[in-house]
Specification:
Chain A is an alpha+beta fold. Chain A has helices at 3-6, 12-24, 29-41, 45-48, 86-104, 145-148, 196-209, 254-260, 287-291, 295-302, 339-343, 387-397, 427-430, and strands spanning 73-81, 138-143, 187-193, 214-225, 276-285, 354-355, 358-364, 370-380, 404-414. In chain A, strands 1, 2, 3, 4, 5, 6, 7, 8 and 9 form a nine-stranded antiparallel beta sheet that branches. In chain A, helix 2 (12-24) packs antiparallel against helix 3 and helix 5 (86-104) runs antiparallel to helix 7. The relative contact order of chain A is 0.17. Chain B has two domains: 1-131, Cupredoxins -  blue copper proteins (Immunoglobulin-like), CATH 2.60.40.420; 136-375, A middle domain of Talin 1 (Up-down Bundle). Chain B has helices at 5-12, 134-168, 172-188, 190-194, 199-204, 219-229, 236-255, 260-278, 290-315, 317-335, 351-368, 371-376; strands at residues 36-42, 47-49, 53-55, 57-65, 71-77, 81-89, 94-101, 104-110, 119-126, 338-339, 342-343. Chain B has a five-stranded mixed beta sheet. In chain B, helix 9 runs antiparallel to helix 10 (317-335). Classes of the chains: A alpha+beta, B alpha+beta. Chains A and B meet through helix 10 and helix 12 of A and helix 1, helix 8 and helix 11 of B.
């Protein structure tokens, strides 16, 4: 392990150190377990905040994973809570918070770690991220409407009166073909990282810790972020081959973020101030028929050119679309049914979203078609004023619908950030 | 969800072919003046055409149906390009088809039960053959396809009337039998019908297409009632509305002037319909009559390509050959799933059989997606 001498004090070291200790571990089981815990805990706290080394700070006013520059990979999971015991749920949230803080710093999920514990006991980390850097892992939690009142109308945890009005069930949109078994959920966790193994590791460990209290309802892997949340990032392409998220809210837009992203004092219950509302939609793309459509049709549907991403009739990607412009034939250059026009803030009362969706390919569907599309993720201050009106427009008029099927849907209230080591996910809600 | 894909391109005119518009005018044969008269005796098992050779020019086919099934009569040029057709010849009736035939080799076909390739016969036409200029070939394509639309909409209206009458009479058995038949004519010209915004979802919208607060109406609403509860006692107003909407769309479809490019895109759009909605059983989720729609989409696509055929043969003969091969392949694959005068239910097919159909549709759709560029150049 010669790199260890020259490597900076990154969180990476914690996982490597755990491996080293594994060799020692055979000596005295109890002693080693305690020693490992101490060693893993002690030296690397500084590294957790060392963003240059690939770690994103876990603590803060807002949860990481929202304005954090979008990472390349996603593992998103929605859970059902299977206990009626409030104390068990709160204890899990505390345990999860501790594990999340460790894993986002590149450490093992538990204090003992993947190796080095009692030979007779299962490790408290599953081990597949050993040796991997934090990879900008972020873990972001959200609470679904059914946590407050379940499908039977029960207030299981005594928090029904704390449900924010903005956490309203989404209406049925035209064309929705939702599958309940991959929609909704009492809780969700979004894991984003630049390495899929790191994201999967994090979700897998949270699911393991939660056994008996929560049950995984559905999960989704994503690759290739489909929007930029920072001006430093180039605009990526979605599976239709078009740049996506050009007009997205960006981390640098402080004023807009206050206005459009973060719940403000007085918006709803205090526990949500500084939080944000998350809408997820799994959107299957009919890529085979799209690929047979002409370039002109594709560009008309999107309202942008495929090459540069410029709005039709303009030159550069970030040029403002000119919706009034007419072509020689007297028709709008950017069609009335184009995606760009219908989703634009000017047509939606100024409403904007912070999108951080991902492409997905869940293999093929047995008919030779890719089971592929966009796992849409959008954060906002109030879905009733943002996602719902925008999607209502799109579901009615968007020419792109011919090639899309919305198959899953979720809405979650994501609380503000965990302040410090004494704070935990859901403290203000359950406190 | 159907949208106005057809219109998007038409309205923006990005690829508009200049100088080509539909030529609605009918060319009476002034040169020869007199029409050939041909008698056709159609039964459930035979199609007797009293000649096999004709002189070029106007021909009038008098078709008598002495069988027990409703019949159709077609005259096809190469590639099953419809030169003329009469639909819905009820048993005992005689209907006339007038068509101008230039020199060439044709096929006649009766279709008892209105399905399948029909009972075919050869027909040779000799005499003066006018050569067709490239642009004129495209002009003729739109005129030819417009005739097709006219014939299909007429049949759509008739069959929808019968369907609506059965629904209002509470005759579940008859309504179920008529449902896929009426839809056949709709599905054959679906891209044309879809270009009329709001009417399409009212007539053909599926349950999930409906927004919160909107009413679910049209064919699929009645389909649901017929096949789930069998209770259509309250569907009278829905049936009436369906007929009103179909009448409106028929009038609009016949007034629409299509461009050759729209034919090309329409042919592709019909196969996309198959690939995205029919192959999955999504469209006819209660009746499972998706294969009827599949076949109708295929026939409609073939009709649009056939109308373009003379122009395509001038510009890209290899593409025509490829299309012929792939159309034949899909027809053969689909042909395995015939049931009587119609088709097996979607639910009766195995996953492997559906995969085979999907592969054949993709193999055809790929060359069809190249037609528009050939037409536009």
């Amino acid at each position: 392990m010669s790199e260890q001498d020259t490597a900076p004090r990154t969180a990476t070291l914690s996982r490597r150190r755990a491996i080293t200790l594994a060799g020692v571990g055979v000596a005295g089981v109890a002693g080693v377990a305690a020693g490992t815990a101490a060693l893993v805990r002690s030296p690397d706290h500084a590294a957790a905040n060392d963003t240059a080394a690939g770690g994103v700070p876990f603590h803060g006013a807002h949860q990481a994973g929202i304005v954090t520059p979008a990472q390349d990979r996603l593992h998103f999971v929605a859970f059902d809570v299977i206990t009626m015991d409030r104390a068990k749920l709160v204890a899990l949230l505390q345990e999860w918070t501790a594990a999340a803080a460790r894993m986002t710093a590149g450490k093992d999920a538990g204090v003992i770690g993947a190796v080095g514990g009692m030979p007779e006991a299962p490790p408290d980390d599953t081990g597949e991220a050993l040796g991997l850097p934090p990879s900008q892992l972020t873990l972001t939690i959200g609470f679904g409407p059914t946590l407050f009142r379940d499908a039977q109308g029960r207030d299981r945890f005594g928090i029904a009166d704390k449900r924010p009005a903005a956490l309203a069930d989404l209406p049925h949109f035209a064309g929705d073909a939702l599958r309940p078994e991959i929609s909704g959920g009492d809780l969700c966790v979004q894991a984003c990282a630049n390495d899929p193994q790191v994201a999967v590791h994090a979700i897998r460990n949270l699911a393991r810790i939660g056994m008996g209290v929560v049950s995984v309802r559905w999960s989704q892997l994503g690759f290739g972020r489909t929007s930029s949340t920072s001006r430093d990032q180039a605009t990526p392409r979605n599976l239709f081959g078009f740049k996506d998220g050009t007009a997205n809210l960006k981390a640098e837009d402080a004023g807009l973020l206050r206005e459009q992203l973060w719940a403000q004092p007085g918006d709803g219950p205090d526990w949500m101030t500084g939080g944000s509302y998350l809408v997820t939609r799994k959107i299957r793309m009919q890529v085979e028929t799209w690929d047979r459509s002409s370039l002109a049709e594709q560009e008309q549907i999107v309202g942008r050119t495929k090459g540069s991403g410029a709005p039709l009739g303009r030159r550069d990607e970030f040029d403002e679309p000119d919706f009034a412009a007419k072509g020689d034939d007297g028709q709008p250059v950017i069609a009335e049914t184009s995606h760009v026009r219908l989703a634009h803030p000017t047509l939606n009362n100024g409403a904007r979203l912070l999108r951080r969706g991902y492409n997905f390919v869940d293999g093929s569907d047995g008919l030779g078609r890719l089971d592929a599309g966009l796992f849409f993720i959008a954060y906002q201050r109030d879905p009733r004023k943002q996602f719902v009106p925008i999607q209502t427009q799109l579901s009615r008029h968007d020419a792109m619908n011919e090639y899309l099927r919305h198959v899953s849907s979720g809405i979650f209230a994501c609380p503000p950030g965990v302040r410090d080591a004494a704070d935990h996910w859901g403290r203000a809600l359950f406190g | 969800m159907r949208t106005t894909r057809f219109v998007v391109l038409a309205a923006t005119g990005v690829l508009a072919v200049t100088g080509v518009t539909a030529c609605g005018g009918k060319t009476e044969d002034k040169a020869t003046g007199k029409a050939n008269a041909v008698t056709v005796k159609a039964t459930d098992t035979a199609c007797e055409v009293d000649v096999t050779e004709l002189a070029a020019g106007q021909t009038s086919f008098s078709v008598t149906n002495s069988g027990s099934k409703v019949n159709e009569f077609y005259v096809y040029a190469a590639g099953d390009r419809v030169m003329g057709e009469v639909e819905n010849i009820a048993p005992g009736l005689t209907r006339e088809l007038r068509v101008e035939l230039p020199a060439g080799t044709y096929e006649t076909a009766c279709k008892p039960g209105m399905s399948g390739r029909g009972i075919r016969g050869g027909l040779k036409v000799t005499g003066a053959a006018a050569s067709v200029a490239p642009d004129a070939a495209l002009t003729q394509a739109t005129a030819s396809y417009q005739r097709y639309v006219t014939s299909q909409t007429a049949a759509l209206l008739t069959k929808t009337e019968e369907f609506v009458a059965a629904v209002k009479a509470g005759d579940v058995t008859k309504a179920k039998a008529l449902y896929p038949v009426a839809r056949t004519y709709w599905e054959r010209i679906e891209p044309v019908a879809e270009s009329f915004g709001d009417l399409d979802p009212k007539i053909d919208g599926r349950e999930e297409v409906i927004e919160e607060g909107m009413e679910f109406t049209g064919f699929h609403r009645i389909e649901k009632d017929l096949w789930t509860t069998g209770d259509i006692s309250k569907d009278g107003p829905i049936a009436d509305q369906l007929l009103t909407d179909v009448k409106a769309i028929v009038a609009k479809a016949n007034a629409e002037k299509l461009t050759p490019l729209q034919l090309a895109n329409g042919a592709k759009a019909l196969l996309d319909e198959v690939a995205s909605g029919k192959i999955t059983g999504e469209e006819e989720r209660y009746s499972h009559t998706d294969l009827w729609d599949f076949n109708a989409n295929l026939e409609g696509s073939k009709a649009a390509i056939a109308a373009l055929r003379p122009a395509l043969e001038q510009r890209s003969p290899d593409l025509v050959k490829q299309l012929d091969t792939e159309f034949a392949n899909v027809e053969a694959t689909l042909g395995k799933h015939r049931a009587g005068d119609g088709w097996k239910l979607h639910t009766a097919l195995s996953k492997a059989e559906l995969k085979e159909l999907s592969d054949s549709i993709n193999a055809l759709a790929e060359p069809i997606s190249k037609v528009a560029a050939v037409v536009a150049r």
